[in-house]
Amino acid sequence: MAIQADMLSIAYGFAAFFLNPIFYVFLIFIYLHYRRQMNLERQLFAARIQSPLLSTIRSVGMGLAGGLLISVLAAGLGVVVQAQDLWILWGLALIMALIRLRFLCFAYAAGLLTVLHAIAQVFPGVSDVAGIGTVWEMLRQAKPLPLLALVAIMHLMEAMLVRWNGGRDASPLFVEGQRGRIVGAYLLHSFWLTPLVLFVQMEPGALSGALYPGWPFFSPGAASFALMLLPTVTGFSDMTQTMTPRMKAEKVAGQLAIYAVVLLALTALAVWFWPLLLVAGLYALFGHEGLFFRSQSQERKRSPYFIQSSRGVKVMGVIPGTRAEEIGIVPGEIIVKVNGIPVRNKEDLYPALQANSAFCKMEVLTHDGELKFVQCAVYAGNHHQLGIIVVPDSTTRVFVDLKRASVVQLIKQKLEKLNIGA
Question: Is the pLDDT of residue 401 over 80?
Fold first, then answer.
């Protein structure tokens, strides 16, 4: 009967989650993010590349699956957190977001909490100081170990979500390259609604027992606990000028997975050797920041990918639902011939398409350098380039000025305030 009551409690918790206004705040935020992204695409290309509704549905569906897996892994590994630590974590994350929006991540907050907890342990007398004593005592009583384990599990799942998404929500941009030339780039910026069911340490009288001997592993000493449903959003942001969105997503996913596994290993070792807790906290903080700078460094060292090719017309993007998508044209491929006519730039493309008003044949170089042949019927009302967006060239004048508008600002500011320069 107790198990049945617990299951009913969990079911009621999930039902209450969908009645929670925070759920809909997050949902609206995600939708508006993708809508602004779509508006930017229309400004640059006079076409919609991404569908805000479809992207939002995909984000919610993938996020729910991800949140479930995070919850199962956290429960199985024995992550039992203190409720007040979650509030501190959210508070630190919001404060750090005022410095840089990318700091709105539990990796930074958990790492900082670990450092502050260590300092509070060394100087316990500050708890008696009026004004900050209460907060200082909360830092002293904090248990950052299960929070760091939770952060590791969340980033492992984030790596899987990035991999599964494969850059499908990426938007093409024209930006100014390092040498002043206009190049193509992709903004990869995704959010997933990931509700978590976590074990929270409680006073005696709540749930008790162990799932297996030694459980809860990451929260030794926790003997009584309850279940808490926590609404969270998992986000990922990056930009690439040097590879396709899918390639970039795969690379980022691999780096995130390594980061998560190392953090989880350090946290597990800290269960037996407590001095490693501070090491794990510093790694959570600086290791995550290292991922950002590593990505930036790799972008600077590699040559731009979405620029003109001497072999033909390189594809920057493909508008969904068009003939180009139907015949399998993908970003990064190079169109060599259209209707038997060699094409070298975008000025050659439209006349070659008009050479046969009813049918189109193309010779295309794939990412592997292999030649493939595609063909399709052409109907009235089709996009004038069958839905193909080509890379910028020397005649391109409209671009996004990233020197004045950061990637985050591009998404947050109103469209009319975006700096689209000539």
Answer: no
